[in-house]
Amino acid sequence: MQEVLYYQVADTLAYEMQLLREWGVTDLCLRQENGKVPLAECARNAAGLVVEYEQVTAEKLSRMPQLKIISLQSIGYNNIDLAAATQRKICVTNAPGFCAEEVAAHTVGMMLDLARKITYFDRTVRRRQWNPLLGYPLHRLRGETVGLVYFGNIPQQMVPLLKALQMQVLVYAPTKSKAYLADFGCEKAETLDELLERADFVSLHTPLLPETTHLIGEAELKRMKKTAFLINTARGAVVDEPALVQALKTGEILGAGIDVIEDETNAQSELFQLENTVITPHAAFISEESFYDARKKALAQLVQRLSKGERPEFLVNPDVSF
């Protein structure tokens, strides 16, 4: 029997136990810890580990000698020391695409909110200002250009929604060809600068990597149209937040839809004080269906590695050997 530790995972494991029964898996023992005991102490005998926000460092991994796999119920994996895990022959997996529908809808919803000033008018009306001419001018969406930065599952699911609004879609994705993007009805931007200069809405869909940290900073914001909106449902640190605050204050861009900030631990941001923003609390991925999809994908990776001895489908450290 191999132990799998679910550490600081809010849900009960009834769903996972049901899946194991349906799949005929009998060699995994699922255990849950609420975080009161440090991870390294709880996971000494664990062959599998599921965490949400816990930082899994090289030092912690050194105290988990039996560990074979870390399975994440998320897309991002910045909380895991991948190099250390790979060195210790520990597979790290994620759950790609589990919330693509939700984030796509949320992102387009933010665009519509900003384009029609829905949240803005809600605020002004509650202040007893019944005036439809307050704030920035409104423009018809038909023919406007949405710039998608990268083109994974989420932006791909946005395209039909945007096309239904008769909007043009421009994509900056260095690994995607013109022909590939044309199949989706999208135009390829050869450079990020081209996209920033042409788009009426710039929507970010990059993972957080060293090369994408502060991908959008002062220089990039200055390249955008003064009538443009920035939407970030990716990761907070993809945007230089002080630079964005300044751009919004000075009118360098018109507004922003923000689902992620740099300091989510303390939930602190100067963006909260600005009228020309729509902000949600990292909620774009949430639905009952997406939660269950993520849990199922995470458990399937554990079964592949531990019960079947196979290479997991959603491996994020492909250089690992075992």
Automatic annotation (TrEMBL):
Pfam families cross-referenced by the UniProt entry: 2-Hacid_dh, 2-Hacid_dh_C
Keyword entries, A-Z: NAD, Oxidoreductase
Domain D-isomer specific 2-hydroxyacid dehydrogenase NAD-binding: 108-284
TM regions (residue ranges): none
Family: Belongs to the D-isomer specific 2-hydroxyacid dehydrogenase family.
Domain annotation D-isomer specific 2-hydroxyacid dehydrogenase catalytic: ranges: 13-317
Gene Ontology MF: a single term: glyoxylate reductase (NADPH) activity
GO cellular component: a single term: cytosol
Name of the protein described by the UniProt record: C-terminal binding protein
